[in-house]
Amino acid sequence: MRVRIFLVFLFSCFGFAAFCNEIRIKDLVEFDGVRRNDLVGYGLVVGLNGTGDGLRNAPFTEELMTNILERLGVNVNGEQFRPKNVASVFVTAALPPFSRSGGRIDVTVSAIGDAKSLLGGTLIMTPLNAADGDIYAVAQGTIIAGGASAEGEAGTVTQRVPTSGVIPSGGRVEREVEFDFSSLSSLRLALREPDFTTAGRIERAINSAFGRRVALMLDAGTVQLDIRATGQKSPAHAIGKVENILVQPERKARVVVDQRSGTIVMGEDVRISRVAVSQGNLTLRVQEAPLAVQPTPFANGRTVVVPRTTATLDEDEGVALAEVPGGTSLSEIVSGLNALGVSPRDMIDILKSIKAAGALHAEFIVR
């Protein structure tokens, strides 16, 4: 366990060292208007091998199936049918920016009833709506589910999630998003991680690349670009030149802790003020050893179970009181704790206590 924490720390050091290099602006910002649009639809999956919805528990499946059959000219009013090879699903997708009619997109299909599996199913033509209620794509195709399920008379086994799957290129774009990108006179660059230093560096890098003042930092998360001042033929040409400009971003000192796996990831700028640390472990052991007491021969009695409990409380030495000098990096603290044999769980508790004492100067994230 200690070896894994040490390797994770080395990986984090190398990762943050990589951030010291220059990175393209396109990997640091989002361009205003250049975004995806979420789509959602409600459809029917057919062709399942008896793993569909129970129509008594999912009446909406029967209603949807009836509507589809009636649109196809099949009259099923008053009929009683209980097929097990159909299931109601939600279909979700993301419409990429500048998608054109006839283009293909991937869709995700998820069961909403009590279907056990969507393996082998086929999605019937399903319209996909955006937030404005209009239809922008239509999805249909064979579902690729990522799980498996089997059951017997007295037990079932399920691997991963067989009630959700994808249809690669299963959606066809039917309507384009109305956005005249070529008519823009200015464009905002939104930083994925707002920071005044990074925004200022982006502004200076863009102005230096064009040789004139074309970019202006509005706040920590926004840089405005004057398209006309760039002298390019169109906004697309201007963005094509801007997005490949290299900038060295600035990162906050941050410590990320995952309590479930005992993983600690930290940056190289994390510092600790002068503080004293003392840590110990308490181990409580409770053991039950019941004793059966039987009556003597020829006695008129019965066997009695006498409970016996042994409880012990041990205190390990742990980490003795130690003083950490000011300005010490967190990497030195973790290396010292690893050398003392401190477990990842105890190390996380120590870091929490140092943060609570106000000696850990970094953003502390616990997951």
TrEMBL record:
<comment type="function">
    <text>Assembles around the rod to form the L-ring and probably protects the motor/basal body from shearing forces during rotation.</text>
</comment>
<keyword id="KW-0282">Flagellum</keyword>
<keyword id="KW-0966">Cell projection</keyword>
<dbReference type="GO" id="GO:0009428">
    <property type="term" value="C:bacterial-type flagellum basal body, distal rod, P ring"/>
</dbReference>
<dbReference type="InterPro" id="IPR001782">
    <property type="entry name" value="Flag_FlgI"/>
</dbReference>
<dbReference type="GO" id="GO:0005198">
    <property type="term" value="F:structural molecule activity"/>
</dbReference>
<comment type="subunit">
    <text>The basal body constitutes a major portion of the flagellar organelle and consists of four rings (L,P,S, and M) mounted on a central rod.</text>
</comment>
<dbReference type="GO" id="GO:0030288">
    <property type="term" value="C:outer membrane-bounded periplasmic space"/>
</dbReference>
<comment type="similarity">
    <text>Belongs to the FlgI family.</text>
</comment>
<dbReference type="GO" id="GO:0071973">
    <property type="term" value="P:bacterial-type flagellum-dependent cell motility"/>
</dbReference>
<keyword id="KW-0732">Signal</keyword>
<keyword id="KW-0975">Bacterial flagellum</keyword>
<keyword id="KW-0574">Periplasm</keyword>
<protein>
    <recommendedName>
        <fullName>Flagellar P-ring protein</fullName>
    </recommendedName>
</protein>
<dbReference type="Pfam" id="PF02119">
    <property type="entry name" value="FlgI"/>
</dbReference>
<keyword id="KW-0969">Cilium</keyword>
